[in-house]
């Protein structure tokens, strides 16, 4: 169950959310409620939730500011924003700061909640795979934050979405910069190209799945972001010196 915190100043809205979650049969457990962003930030620090469902307009501290401060402190919880139609521009800003999505307060129903939270559950599952990969393969050098905030945003995005279709253009659009400039700057700040960084992240995840599961090579390749089996095997061998099947046999011999 994913630990969930509700940050909402209206009591009836909090109660409605609890009822919807109870009916939705989703893998989320509500562990607390806060009535504004300031209280919510304290509870995030204390409870370490996996996901925060936060209203945008609240007294003391609004939801967008809460999201900003949470990210500045390096806390990884996912955010889903609650918004009214007139607040849509603020919801868009929240998406730019890394929110997983938003829910329309005035029309929220069981179907809408399920659609939004299933997306969040998938993101959390990817993050869990990433943490397992880091634990299994300590030889992988951890990427230290750069001195450039937009490059750090790209790195964080790749860490969460490496299994998806990621292109230079999509990353450039994400931070609203010219693609050629992003490519040059990323290499300057990290010492590697975007392509190599993404490939390495996918290979590390693939190594964990090969060692810990019995899933087929084809299934693993698709799940870490490679478009077809041959390309996955080719890139895996380039990085590891052996094919995925050979790597799996080596790991079984070690264990």
TrEMBL record:
Q: What GO biological process terms are annotated to this protein in UniProt? A: phosphorelay signal transduction system
Q: Keywords of this protein's UniProt record, alphabetized?
A: DNA-binding, Phosphoprotein, Transcription, Transcription regulation
- Give one Pfam family: Response_reg
Looking up InterPro entries in the UniProt record yields:
CheY-like_superfamily, Homeodomain-like_sf, HTH_AraC, HTH_AraC-typ_CS, Sig_transdc_resp-reg_receiver, Tscrpt_reg_AraC-type_HTH
Annotated positions of the 4-aspartylphosphate modification: 55
Keyword Transcription included in the entry's annotation = yes
Q: List, in alphabetical order, the Gene Ontology terms for molecular function in this entry.
A: DNA-binding transcription factor activity; sequence-specific DNA binding
Gene3D superfamilies (alphabetical): 3.40.50.2300, Homeodomain-like
Annotated ranges, domain Response regulatory: 3-120
Protein name, UniProt field = Helix-turn-helix domain-containing protein
Ranges for domain HTH araC/xylS-type? 152-250
What SUPFAM superfamilies would the database entry show? CheY-like (SSF52172), Homeodomain-like (SSF46689)
């Amino acid at each position: 169950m994913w630990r969930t915190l509700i940050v909402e100043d209206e009591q009836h809205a909090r109660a409605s959310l609890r009822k919807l979650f109870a009916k939705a049969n989703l893998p989320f457990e509500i562990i607390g409620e806060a009535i504004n962003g300031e209280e919510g930030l304290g509870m995030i620090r204390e409870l370490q939730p996996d996901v925060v469902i936060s209203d945008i307009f609240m007294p003391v501290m609004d939801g967008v500011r809460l999201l900003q401060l949470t990210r500045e402190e390096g806390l990884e919880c996912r955010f889903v924003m609650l918004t009214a139609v007139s607040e849509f521009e603020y919801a868009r800003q929240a998406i730019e700061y890394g929110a997983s999505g938003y829910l329309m307060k005035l029309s929220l129903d069981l179907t809408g909640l399920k659609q939004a939270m299933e997306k969040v559950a998938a993101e959390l599952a990817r993050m869990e795979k990433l943490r397992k990969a880091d634990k299994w393969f300590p030889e992988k050098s951890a990427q230290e934050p750069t001195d450039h905030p937009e490059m750090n945003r790209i790195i964080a995005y790749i860490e969460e979405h490496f299994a998806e279709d990621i292109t230079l253009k999509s990353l450039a659009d994400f931070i609203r910069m010219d693609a050629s400039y992003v490519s040059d700057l990323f290499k300057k700040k990290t010492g590697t190209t975007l392509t190599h960084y993404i490939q390495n992240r996918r290979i590390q995840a693939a190594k964990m799945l090969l060692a810990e599961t019995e899933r087929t090579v084809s299934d693993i390749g698709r799940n870490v972001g490679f478009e077809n089996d041959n390309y996955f095997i080719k890139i895996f061998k380039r990085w590891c010196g052996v094919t995925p099947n050979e790597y799996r046999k080596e790991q079984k011999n070690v264990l």
